[in-house]
What we know:
- The protein has a 4-stranded parallel β-sheet with strand order 5-4-6-7, sandwiched between helices. It has a 3-stranded antiparallel β-sheet with strand order 1-2-3, with no helix packed on it.
- The termini are far apart.
- Helices cover 51% and strands 15% of the residues.
- It is built from 9 helices and 7 strands.
- The chain has 2 domains: 1-137, Rossmann fold (3-Layer(aba) Sandwich), CATH 3.40.50; 209-254.
- Helix 1 links the parallel strand 4 (30-36) and strand 5.
Amino acid sequence: MIYDTIKVSKVTVVRFNTKYIIGVVTMSKIYGYCRISTNKQSIERQGRNIIGEYPTAIIINEIFTGTKIEGRKEFTKLLNKVTKDDTIIFDSVSRMSRYAEEGYKLYEELFNKGVELVFLKEPHINTSVYKKQIDNVNIPTTDNNVVNAILDGVRNALMLLAKEQIKIAFNQAEKEVKDLQQRTREGILTARLNGKQIGLVEGTKLTTKKSIKAKEEIMKYSKDFNGTLKDIECIKLTGLARNSYYKYKKEITES
Length: 255
């Protein structure tokens, strides 16, 4: 059967013998991305803020420590999934990236891909605002070359201003991390100067449930203690990393 298709917005209309029947419907999706550094933090606030503004958002949660995007598995999956007209919502720009250069680069890539970005705490850099600023730059030309040159300068200035606003937001997110790191270093130094012990005393061995269990297994299976297995066989049986195995074995010998 011969037929042709006509795309109307996000709905594909299929025409059979001059009659229109709704065919494939492609709906854009709204995602909310929430990230915390450790499982000791609460991620609920971010999700609650996003759902409060976008009730139909699909929430993606991730626990990841670090300022860069590399290694964030859930976020990477989301980036590979989104298509034109989809939306990603962040509680703040820092949830997208705390590394200014990387954050701005990703922002530009997603914008050019047609993905909508929303930042609840920094709405002035939402892609909708950025797009509006770019559209405002489309100042019509005239027959006067001098006037056109001036208008070109105005266009370039407006574009640079829009980009600079986005960069400032990511720079601020990066600065917050660096300030926190600096305050932490200063706090540790102050504590040490006041005679407080930071970390373990040199030579002290840290005892954990994991180390206790590992040492028990080594003593049970290793031929150097109560077992019959060689080191390589013990490592495979216990599932310990090579360095950890020999560290625990040394501690057993020295105890």
